[in-house]
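To close the section, here is one more complete example, presented without commentary so you can practise reading it yourself. The ligand is manganese (II) ion.
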Amino acid sequence: MRILLRGGRVVSAGGVRASDVLLDGEIVAAVGENLSGEGARVVDCAGKLLFPGFIDGHTHFDLEVGGTITADDFATGSRAALRGGTTTVIDFAAPDKGEALRAGLDRWRGKAEGRCACDYGFHMTIDDWDEGISREIGEMAAEGIPSFKMYMTYPAMMIGEGDMYRALLRLKEAGGIAGVHCENDGVIRALTEDARARGALGPGSHPRTRPAPLEAEAVAHLLRLAQLADAPVIIVHLSARESLEEVRAARRRGQTVYVETCPHYLLLEDSVYDSPDFMEAAKYVCAPPIRRREDQEALWEALRSGEIHTVATDHCPFTTAQKRAGRYDFTKIPGGLPGVEHRGQLLYTHGVAAGRIGAEDMCRVLCENPARLYGCWPRKGVIAPGSDGDIVVWDPEARGTITAADQVQNVDYTPYEGWAVQGAAEQVYLRGILAVDRGAVLVENSGQFIKRGRNQL
Ligand code: MN
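Output:
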């Protein structure tokens, strides 16, 4: 089946250019002016931007956290992703402590296979360390899972700094790379105990027990270990200006540091926790927490300058009923925000339409950089001959409002309720299949596991 997307403007990280795009089967056959539509179904894309399918390098579908499970599984979460223009997600496969990495991978493949509507891959969480796991890192990389995750907070996930250092060395040797959740666990625990002793158990205590300096300290700490290991690392969900300063210091030393941030850190500010209504504040509980306005400004500036490489969602949805578990104790509120469906619209509205970044920057942080960093370039992340036919036909003039009532992500609220948005994914193609048409998701289990290779960023 050949499809000619005619008369649009193709977006790449290098710029925006008037071009037709010819899809043949699953791949892009040609990109250029005045392509012949002979034998093809022709789609008029006049006035539209054509982005490569967005890649979300940070989702948590079907994840058990503290006795509950994220509200989206691979079926619902992937459909929400597609609806917003995201054609590939990279989720996190996590073994339990004491298990082989293989056990975690098998479990996550079982959750996704035959159920995921968009293409997918996994980062492998390293939450334990021994000879076997060290050996498995090479096996995982060979099987298309070259990216890993480590935690400096959450006792169930932490491996401690000696083993984290060993893991960085081993990853470098195997051609892998790790994203790290950076927060200082010990001081967070102390602040939490103090809040509890004061009886300050409302959601307003959440951001006060995880202040920005504790993120920056962990970033600095990690980056010194990475310096010693001479290994590149990724700081995931960086939220604070102080953390950027630590990244800059490491780069001045010659280190390679990749940075991811998320829409909620770019767009929300910490007054969200001030509401006297439990649920109004609990909705925004995530780690790191929502920061100050000055942090937002610093993140936008770093996004524009290229100091931040990717914008991912950290989609980790819990319904208001699930959030209610922390009614009398903020530490029991499951942490995380929904967002996989709205990332493109939010970034277009508050980035491109607002004049903070260009469409090519949006393409860089949603498409090209994640594809390169996570080793699926140029199959993904670019509209070029031979690439997968993952295309977002973006209507830059569409106007709408984000509401929970409209969304298909499986959660009863959105942090962006009532927000006006400009721009929308009018059609989304996944490997040449029309997967979304004007808000209707047309596919169910069309996703494939994407084998990835080395970082090319
Ligand atoms: Mn996460």
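Once you have examined the tokens, check your reading against these statements. Residues 58, 60, 314, 316 surround manganese (II) ion (CB under 6 Å). Residues 392 and 428 are 5 Å apart (CA to CA).
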